[in-house]
Amino acid sequence: MKRGTRPWATLLAVLAVVVSTLLSGCSETGGSRDTASGGPGKGRWQPRPGLAWQWQLDGKVDAAAADVPVYDIDGFENDAEDVARLHRAGRKVICYINVGAWENYRPDKDAFPPSVLGGPNGWQGERWLDIRRISLLRPIMERRFDMCRKKGFDAVEPDLVEGYADDTGFPLTAQDQLRYNRMIAGIAHDRGLAVGLKNDLSQIPQLVDTFDFAVNEQCAQYDECARLTPFIEAGKAVFHVEYTEPTDRFCPESRRLGLSSMRKKLELGIWRRAC
User: Fold this and answer.
1) Beta bridge partners of 129
2) Which end of the chain has less neighbouring CB within 10 Å, N or C?
3) Whole-structure pTM value
């Protein structure tokens, strides 16, 4: 670069930063929504450790059930107005989508070829997916994440992303799971959505940089919560739930580790008891 052009380049760079800052400030629809992310965000939402949350997958969301900055709700059973109502209350909203199993009660159930359907996963009407068949599953998941984006969700919680460790009916490997999970994260990021790593503790070292937060079930019951520390150290929230452990047994450790912990009933209705 010629010496004489540096002042102009510097001025242009400063102007670019100012314009970028102004535009990013306009991307949020109110300061109250920044509360959940710990401050004004640039690009996709990045939930920070310690955020309180509500997890309701049973039916339509009850927006008044909990005064917390983050709601995680079913992507199919809630519409754009449900999401907008939560946003107006200053909340971020996560879209629950099952990416590891076929569900016979979803409206897109016929989109899954029979060849990708494996054994039952223990939940009525569900069967594991052959996650090696990326060319078949990717378009389906893209349409599902498109739905989340169009409804206005801020993030996605993809469920059942550790099938390689279960009896799925397919010879899945850890490498198969890593490839599929990274694909899922990429689909979310391409749509401007944050994405959480659900359980899959063994692969946290390989995936913590790829995912924006974690969602965990029962790490206290199995004495595994410390394995989620890489997310906390990276400044990423860990949304954690227990079903049977008393709160006085797991909450002190959850607070020490920086987890966003609560107790829920297994059906994941509106009831919650937070740490």
Assistant:
1) 117
2) N
3) 0.85
- 79 pLDDT band, cuts 50/70/90, is very high
3-state secondary structure 18-73: HHHHHHHHHCCCCHHHHHHHCCCCCCCCCCCCCCCEEEECCCCCCCCCCCCCEEEE
How far is the first Cα of the chain from the last one, in angstroms, to the nearest whole number?
A: 57
Cα 117–chain centre separation: 24
209-267 pLDDT tens trace: 999 999 999 999 999 999 999 999 999 999 999 999 999 999 999 999 999 999 999 99
pLDDT of 118 strictly over 90: yes
Place of tokens 């709601």: 71
Tally Cβ neighbours within 10 Å of residue 106. Answer: 18
Q: Note the pLDDT tens digit of each residue in 124-173.
A: 999 999 999 999 999 999 999 999 999 999 999 999 999 999 999 999 99
- The rounded Cα 99 to chain-centroid distance in angstroms is 12
